[in-house]
Amino acid sequence: MSAFVDYKKYLRGNSRKRLKELAIFEIGGFGSSPYPIFDFLSERNAKKVIYRGINPDSYEYLWDRSMSLKEWQRTFSQRMIQNHSSLKEGIDKLVIPWDGMNIPYPFTENSFDEFHCHMLDSPIISLTSDYLATPERFVDEVNRLLRLEGRVYLTIQNNLFFRTGNRPAYIKESVAMMDQMISRLQTHHFTIDRLDYGSGSNSNIETYLQQQNYTFPVERVNYSSLRTFTRESTVDLLLIATKMLV
After folding, report:
1. Where is pLDDT greater, at 147 or 65?
2. Running DSSP on this structure, what letter comes out for residue 125?
3. Distance from the CA of 186 to the CA of which of 49, 146, 154, 179 falls in 20 to 30 A?
4. Which pLDDT does position 212 carry in this prediction?
């Protein structure tokens, strides 16, 4: 039987005390709700919420315009950041056209309390591609941007995030990529809070996860729980990790 998990406790934080400031980074995607965290900023318990998002329109990179478009995005986005006037209170929102595969992202280190990447219909990481970041490089960027005690939230749908579909060999590959990210997170002294899989996920996911012998919670959860992070009805994997002191 699949469990219901209240993931909102991770988003609320460990204390009910209202924060002076909360900085959130989100890699957006496609579909009816490309920025699920963006949609609920007003519910955050903070005097000021700083939101920075990127729109990874990577389909453009499939054609010959890739280099010129990437340079245009870099210049345009960096100018947006430089010209942005920050609010003293309330919700300070800025979304820039920056591709998720274009690492590093244009923000200084230790900038954020949360790093989100949910249901992204765009390639970012790969075990084999020469053009995409490796799982390790992606995690290195997560570590660079997060402050101490900051959290990373990552949800994966196999046939979207990794474009692998549900064939057993591809599911094994996506679990292998997750495993590499977990190992790198632990190298950077992150604690793994949860690694959960959706109730409707292919049974091979459960088999491969059990073979890893993780020492942290791995649980089969229902989709209504996972919709805390995305409005999509099918989520295969969820990872939550916290950056800790060395």
Report:
1. 147
2. B
3. 49
4. 81
pTM score, whole prediction: 0.88
Q: Minimal CA–CA distance to 231: which of 118, 86, 151, 66? A: 118
> What is the 3-state composition of the chain as percent helix, strand, coil, each rounded to the nearest 5?
30, 25, 40
107 DSSP 8-state letter: S
Q: Is 8-243 a CATH 2.30.40 domain?
A: no
Cα distances (Å, whole numbers) of residue 11 to 22, 95, 189: 11, 20, 21
Residue pointed to by tokens 């992202």: 105
CB of 236 closer than 8 Å to CB of 156: yes
Average pLDDT for 190-212: 80
Q: What are φ and ψ of residue 101, in 5° steps? A: -85, -5
For residue 102, count other CB atoms closer than 10 A to its CB. Answer: 18
Amino acid at 146: L
Report the alpha-carbon distance of residue 158 to residue 236 in Å, rounded: 7
Look at the chain and count its residues.
Answer: 246
Query: DSSP code of 212?
Result: T
Percent of the chain at pLDDT > 90 equals 34
